[in-house]
Amino acid sequence: MFVFEKANHNFRKPILTLGFIFLTMLTLFFDNYEPYAFTPKKEFGFNLFYSFFFNSSLSEWFTNAVYLYMFADNIEDVVGHFYFFILFIFFGVLANLTYFLFHINSIIPVIGTSGVISGILGMYFVFFPNVKSTMVFEKATFRDIPIFISLSIWILIQSYFYIIELNNQVRSVYGGQVVTFLVGMGFAQIFIRYQFLDRLEQNLRLSTFINKTVLCPSCNKPIPAKKYGRFHCSACDTNFFFDRHGKKFL
C-alpha cells in the first residue's frame, strides 16, 4: 500500500528535506553498506546515528525519497529547520533502538529511512488530518481520502505485518515503524498542547490582516479575518493557521 499526498503547499523552503534526499542518494554509490548498518548484537557505535541514511537498493531509495518529498517538507515547514533536523535524527535513532530492543540478539544488519519516515508520518497525521490523499493498493486506487484515514490504514497494515513476522520469528523493522509513528503523533500533540507553534509565529499573529478574508486550504471557502492566526472552517470542519507569508497549517 502507498499513500500519496494530494496537495499541501509549504511556504518555507524545505532545505533539509531536499538535503537529506540528496544525502541518501549519495549512499547508493557505496559498494558495501554492511559496515555502516546497525546490528543489534554488535557493540553500539556511530552507525546508530547514520545507518538510516543508507538504502539497500535504488527502488527502496526512490520510495523513501518520494515519501520524504511529499510529507517531510510540510513538517519542516511547520516546526522549522532546526527542530526538523533534531526530529529526523531522533526518529532514526529511535527506530534503531526499537529494533535493538525487539531483536536484541539479531546479527542481521539494518539500514533504511523507513523509521524516520514513519515518525514524520505520525506528526503529519496530527498536523494535517484533513489533507486529501490517494491510497494505492495492488489492484485498487482510492482518491480524495482524508489523510487521517489513509495513514490509519497504513499503520494498521504495518502493525499486522509486524505481528505476522513476529509469530514466524522473522527479524523485521515493522515494529520500529509502528513505534516511531506513535512517538511522532505524541510529539505533534506536545507541540500543539504547549502552543509551540503559536510561539513560533507570535509576532505574526499579532499583526493586522489586510485582505479581510482567508481561504480555507481544504475547501477554499472565504473566511472573515482581521488578524493572522488560527482559523476554523465550519464548512469542512478544518482548523488551520495563516501568517503574513501565506502559510497554512491544517
Care to describe what's here?
With 250 residues, the protein is α+β, with helices and mostly antiparallel strands. It folds into 2 domains: 202 residues, Up-down Bundle (Rhomboid-like fold), CATH 1.20.1540.10; 38 residues, no CATH class. 50% of the residues lie in helices and 13% in strands. It has 9 helices and 8 strands. The strands form 3 sheets. A 3-stranded antiparallel beta sheet has the order 1-2-3. A 3-stranded antiparallel beta sheet has the order 6-7-8, with no helix packed on it. Strands 4-5 form a two-stranded antiparallel sheet. Strand 2 and strand 3 form a beta hairpin. Helix 1 runs antiparallel to helix 3, helix 3 packs parallel to helix 5 and helix 5 runs parallel beside helix 7. The longest helix has 22 residues. It is globular and about 60 Å long. This is Rhomboid family intramembrane serine protease. GO terms for molecular function: serine-type endopeptidase activity. One of its GO terms (cellular component) is membrane.
Provide keyphrases for this structure.
250 residues; protease; 9 helices; globular; Rhomboid-like fold; three-stranded antiparallel beta sheet; alpha+beta
Count of extended strands: 8
Strand order of the biggest β-sheet? 1-2-3
* Coarse morphology: globular
The computed structural class is alpha+beta
Helix coverage percent of residues? Answer: 40-55%
Strand content: 5-15%
| Gap between N and C termini | 24 Å
CATH architecture of the largest domain: Up-down Bundle
Runs with pLDDT <50, length 5+?
202-210
**CATH class category name of the largest domain:** Mainly Alpha
The number of distinct helices, counting runs of at least 4 residues, comes to 9
Find the CATH topology of the largest domain.
Answer: Rhomboid-like fold
CATH homology-level superfamily of the largest domain: Rhomboid-like
- Major sheet details: 3 strands, antiparallel
Number of domains: 2
